[in-house]
Amino acid sequence: MTDTPDTPRKNPLCCGLAGVVRWMPVWVPFGLLAQLGLLGLRPALHEDLRLQAAEARLEQRLAGLREERGELEHELDALQDPIYIERLRRLRDE
Predict the structure, then answer these.
(1) What value does the CA radius of gyration of the chain take, rounded to a whole number of Å?
(2) Which residues of the chain are modeled with pLDDT < 50?
(3) Percentage helix, strand, coil, to 5, in the chain?
(4) Containing H/E element for 2?
(5) Would you say 84 and 78 are in contact if contact means Cβ atoms under 8 Å apart?
(6) Residue 16 to residue 23: CA distance in whole angstroms
(7) How many whole angstroms separate alpha carbon 18 and alpha carbon 66?
């Protein structure tokens, strides 16, 4: 059988790419399932535990900083009081 000029010959590369694109909705979920099967949820669970520990450390640090801020605000209010300033001056002079 010979090719006639009115029937174009299909490129095998084009046919291969068309097949890949056609089967992509099947291979992508299989790829994700394979990744889940090979790696499992272990890395994600380890990352979750690490982030929970980091969150606990940040909460403790935040509580400490809020307490320090309250003390500094109290000291600032005291330093704006003229009676307190006079008492400090008298204590230093003694």
Answers:
(1) 37
(2) 1
(3) 85, 0, 15
(4) none
(5) yes
(6) 11
(7) 62
Sign of the Cα torsion 63, 65, 70, 74 reads positive
Contact criterion met (CB below 8 Å) for 40 and 46: no
Rounded Cα–Cα distance for residues 84 and 91 (Å): 11
Query: Buried (b) or exposed (e) across 53-87, using 16+ Cβ within 10 A?
Result: eeeeeeeeeeeeeeeeeeeeeeeeeeeeeeeeeee
User: How far, in Å, are 28, 77, 85, 88 from residue 91 at the CA level?
Assistant: 78, 19, 10, 5
State which amino acid sits at residue 11: N
C-alpha 31: how far from its chain's center?
Answer: 24
CA distance 7 to 50: 63
Provide the pLDDT for residue 4.
56
